[in-house]
């Protein structure tokens, strides 16, 4: 049985704004209906018939980009670039692998309260409100560690409460043979372009099972979320920092 999507024009984004655009289309491989949210900060995709799945990709040039903040050397001796590499590979890590404090990089810029999701000093940083939503779901081996943000003077705190997010779950669900726009890097890793179309990413049905947040190495700079987690983030008015695109769920031949 094929489930048809409603008119996309009747299904607008909950968060409003020019970037919160929903698109609906039918997943021909499975007969599932899909809805898409395109929001600054990444991508999430989900089907609306079964347990839904989503994918997220940062628009901040990946997990290894420092965005406005720096950190002192970590006690483990691990560099920030190493931290970013392990985090985007889905490696579970303990609290000592993450900075407890980060500092605004530029002396002439006062950092305001940060968004609910940012990439800073090699880490994925979320607000306390976002962390509260995440904790309600199955994170598997992923963890949240407190982190304090300071202005450049290293004394004045940035408004808000924040946590480092260690994405410690992997699923072997990305199907590069069904993703014509995928690029193979020299080290064997895979990368999608920063601007994805609605069906550029294909995943196996295994994406519908297990933890609600994960990565799929060797694909880099993309993380996945279940639809129930995606919907909860939207309901908490956090859609503007997460972007949504559908991915095709492809059954095995």
Account of the protein in words:
By secondary structure, the protein is mainly beta. 10% of the residues lie in helices and 27% in strands. It has helices at residues 80-88, 128-134, 227-235, and strands spanning 21-27, 32-39, 42-47, 53-57, 69-70, 101-104, 117-120, 123-127, 143-150, 162-166, 183-184, 190-191, 202-203, 213-214, 222-226, 248-249. The protein has a 6-stranded mixed beta sheet with strand order 5-6-9-10-8-7. A 3-stranded antiparallel beta sheet has the order 1-2-3, with no helix packed on it. It has a 3-stranded antiparallel beta sheet with strand order 4-15-14. Strand 11 (183-184) and strand 12 form a beta hairpin. The longest helix has 9 residues, at 80-88. The two termini are 19 Å apart. Residues 1-53 and 56-66 have low confidence and may be disordered.
Task: Provide a quick synopsis of the model.
With 253 residues, the protein is mainly β. It has helices at 80-88, 128-134, 227-235, and strands at residues 21-27, 32-39, 42-47, 53-57, 69-70, 101-104, 117-120, 123-127, 143-150, 162-166, 183-184, 190-191, 202-203, 213-214, 222-226, 248-249.
Show unreliable segments: 1-53, 56-66
Helix content: under 10%
What gap, in angstroms, lies between the N and C termini?
A: 19 Å
Mean pLDDT: 75
- What percentage of the residues does DSSP assign to strands (E)? 25-35%
Number of helices: 3
- Mind telling me the C-alpha Rg? 18 Å
Instruction: Give the oligomeric state.
Output: single chain
- Find the structural class using helix and strand composition: mainly beta
* Elements, N to C (H/E): EEEEEHEEEHEEEEEEEHE
DSSP, total strands: 16
Kindly report the spatial arrangement of strands forming the biggest sheet: 5-6-9-10-8-7
Q: Can you summarize the main beta sheet? A: 6 strands, mixed
